[in-house]
Amino acid sequence: MGFWRRISTAMPLLATVMLHLHVKSCPEDQFELPDQICCHFCSEGRFVTKNCTRNKNSVTGVKCSPCSECADGMQMIAPCTSFTDTQCSVKGTESPVIDPTQALPVELLYVIVPVVLILIIAALGYKWCSRRSASREPAEEPVKIMV
């Protein structure tokens, strides 16, 4: 009976060890998902945005996106990895983390700023001209009401 007692107490330990000794079955250039699907890593400069999936008899590949670069005035706090995009924050701070794609590109600012200035100047010019023309027109005589 001592033999069976030793085996029954060792079984949970043996089962735990066996679960942790899972042998990776994917090649080096692929990663394994929990349901034992092997997916290809994205190429250099890209990261996985959607894992591969298994449909009946076929496997659909991963979806990759290019790694972002931090915009001007931002600093990189975490580089792009196989599974995450570049993480950026405002220079001199560590947080809040800002998605690099949310920052306006500098080229767009070169267009927006002049357009806004032209609109402001045009509005001020219109207001100034309308005041000058209003002051030149003769005033209307007040209407006299006879009672």
TrEMBL record:
UniProt signal peptide: 1-25
> Pfam families this protein is in?
TNFR_c6
Instruction: Pinpoint the residue ranges of every TNFR-Cys repeat in the record.
Output: 41-88
- Please list the residue ranges annotated as the TNFR-Cys domain: 41-88
What are the protein's UniProt keywords?
Disulfide bond, Membrane, Signal, Transmembrane, Transmembrane helix
Q: Which domain of life is it from?
A: Eukaryota
Name the residues that span the membrane: 108-126
Show the disulfide pairing. 67-80, 70-88
What protein name is recorded for this chain?
Answer: TNFR-Cys domain-containing protein
